[in-house]
UniProtKB/TrEMBL annotation:
Keyword annotations from UniProtKB, A to Z: Cytoplasm, Methyltransferase, Nucleus, S-adenosyl-L-methionine, Transferase
Family (UniProt): Belongs to the class I-like SAM-binding methyltransferase superfamily. BUD23/WBSCR22 family.
Biased composition (Basic and acidic residues): 248-257, 264-273
SUPFAM superfamilies, per database record: S-adenosyl-L-methionine-dependent methyltransferases
Location(s), subcellular: Cytoplasm; Nucleus
Domain 18S rRNA (guanine(1575)-N(7))-methyltransferase Bud23 C-terminal positions: 204-279
InterPro entries: Bud23-like (IPR039769), Bud23_C (IPR022238), Methyltransf_11 (IPR013216), SAM-dependent_MTases_sf (IPR029063)
Listed Pfam families: Methyltransf_11 (PF08241), WBS_methylT (PF12589)
Species of the source: Characodon lateralis
Ribosomal protein as UniProt keyword: no
Domain Methyltransferase type: 58-131
Region called Disordered, residue ranges: 247-282
Name of the featured protein: 18S rRNA (Guanine1575-N7)-methyltransferase
Amino acid sequence: MASSCRRPEHTGPPDVFYNEEEAKKYSQNSRMIEIQTQMSERAVELLNLPEGQACYLLDVGCGSGLSGDYLTEEGHHWVGVDISTAMLDVALDREVEGDLLLGDMGQGMPFRSGTFDGCISISALQWLCNADKRSHSPPKRLYTFFSTLYSSLARGCRAVFQLYPENSEQLELITSQAMRAGFTGGMVVDYPNSSKAKKFFLCLFTGGTGVLPKGLGSETSDRTVANQVQYSGQRCRFNNIKGKSAKKGRDWIMEKKERRRRQGKEVRPDTKYTGRQRRPHF
């Protein structure tokens, strides 16, 4: 999950990056189409939909409709949301079966409560972690998205996000806002020991305490690599993704202060006494 200057979200806003030239790749590049289809298939598998039943699904960051094509093949009806007009134009040219909506996921999902039986999203969620405008606050945009998505989903269903996290801090930011919005669930990591095949899926539940699916390739993974990270209404520390600090110790306090700084919150300056237990004054 190392940072890379080649990450698309570092080059500009998604509606700028996914221009006409980039959008064409999603209808002409066979390798890209194959990868998108495979990730869509896995996301739908993690949704754990009722067998043999047509569902009404939401595809967030639907792009050119490749993931929607798979939903259609599986007999489902769907609505796709994307911020890029160029990508949606390609979807229209391809005559996809789903309904398409131009929208910024960071501004929330404009649907009635309980509309959908599930949600998938392929390679889109990490874009919300960037502040492309001065008015953008990643924690606020993530919470707005997750809270409105939670409302638009029927109780007892799932939302599955395939994403490319930049680092463990980004994972914690994303999942903490999902948890705050009411979701439970956790991170499923497929093929955790492979640098190329490794994939992250955030599997969220709307109510209840669903059992987190196992990541693929777990049979061959060693014990030092986590392929499940579960969280619930309690604060998630992602102990298997980054080292755990003793609560209330110096490292714990420094980590907490650093997170608050990244979130744009006011934090007291560090001193040589930070993290030390103070003696009471009488």
